[in-house]
Amino acid sequence: MPGHNAVKHVRFSGRLLMLGCGSIGQGVLPLLLRHIDMPAENILILTADHRGSAVAAAYGIKEKVLALTPENYREELTARLAPGDFLLNLSVDVSSVALIKLCREIGALYLDTCIEPWAGGYTDLSLTPSQRSNYALRETALALMDDPNAPTAVVAHGANPGLVSHFVKQALLHVARDTGIAVPTVPQTRDGWAALAQNAGVKVIHIAERDTQVANIPKKRGEFVNTWSIDGFIGEGCQPAELGWGTHEMTLPEDGRHHDAGCGAAIYLMRPGASTRVRTWTPMEGPFHGFLITHNEAISIADYFTLSENGAVKYRPTVHYAYHPCDDAVLSIHELAGKNWEPQTNKRLMEDEIIRGVDELGVLLMGHARGAYWFGSQLSIEEARALAPHNNATSLQVTAAVLGGVIWAMENPRAGVVEADSLDYARVLEIVLPYLGTMAGEYSNWTPLQERGVLFPEDVDATDPWQFKNFRVV
């Protein structure tokens, strides 16, 4: 094991209760034990099924199979958490806001990888599309940011949302350096970061991801196959497509809608994200079509990089996720959509059957003097298996980010409710980078309008794409 992968970053004397032990829970266990000075007997897993039982047993971790519900979660968690403990929420169908409130009452630390509702919240037809959105879920978490000295609760800190917020800051510093913008000191406030982005001319940020992992077992009819949480992917794929909405945008998409309340940093489309494709670019893949899957980071990054004056927004970039999952997952989505979004009976998480491929996950900053700049992780399945057990390339990008967020929370135990954008990006990257494979930064002259209208005429102005209606779905 490489020496830098055995560093104990922090000592933790409390107990850690982990909710859920699916692909991310199983993958993060060895990282927690490797990098946090705490005995295995201080960790307990509470999970709705036995998927992670073998891995938990291999590390000597106690596990109890119990599904949390609105009726039992308070009783079950108060019996297992005390002041100074840590609740690591890697579950689905359990309300993040309910857990954060309870942790605040108890005095326990908290981290999750996305803001989850109770079961059924993503597709509850008694709610409007706006109410089913990640924007609405985020607003419920923002409402808890009323006490900056409360026990730390890090919300939405996986790979994305989470890690990519730190990529944006690092990429922005690279763009400033390479375009001759003086940055005497690294910004320490959100206004400072937003001013730097505005000065650099950044108008659009894609979270651009291409997963090329391939298995030796093909997808079957009636089966959803993926490299990470299938329930999580289906849930967010059925939510409305969402994106942070920049000040340079001139008109809404035809089915675009503003929200009636909240921070105002994002819009949504009247269609599922898994049915919406957008153009994007990564260094290894080049141009491709990604799904406009809703994610918290599309809203939080746009909000964080907003500059206002006298109550009026003066600058904000457009931000959205553009995701091409592994090819078998694309086939799974195609089948899911054809069945009117009724999930397949069978679900298979790709693990040992993966034979090759890379997860290329990064951020694409566009509109500045150098055109477009992609910065992120290019992690192969071979590298992932060598770096950490029970992980593929996709899961390791998530589990490493979870580790970074957990350690930051332990080092900063009284920060209140915080998003990834407010964390010390340099400290988190220091912890996470050894697990991300090749970290690449590459410039390109690509834009979303490049070579549009070749086969059929379109009303676009490719000579100045950032002053036109930039956002165009495929």
Radius of gyration: 21 Å
Report the principal-axis shape: globular
| Largest sheet descriptor | 7 strands, parallel
CATH-assigned fold name of the largest domain: Dihydrodipicolinate Reductase, domain 2
Query: What CATH architecture of the largest domain do you see?
Result: 2-Layer Sandwich
Mean pLDDT figure? 95
Number of helices: 13
Per CATH, the superfamily of the largest domain is homospermidine synthase like
What share of the residues does DSSP label as strand, in percent?
25-35%
Poorly predicted runs of 5 or more residues = none
For the record, the CATH class of the largest domain is: Alpha Beta
Sequence of strands across the biggest β-sheet: 5-4-2-6-7-8-24
Which structural class do the helices and strands define?
Answer: alpha/beta
Quote the distance from N terminus to C terminus: 45 Å
Residues in helix, %:
25-40%
User: How many structural domains does the protein architecture include?
Assistant: 2
**How many β-strands, per DSSP?**
25
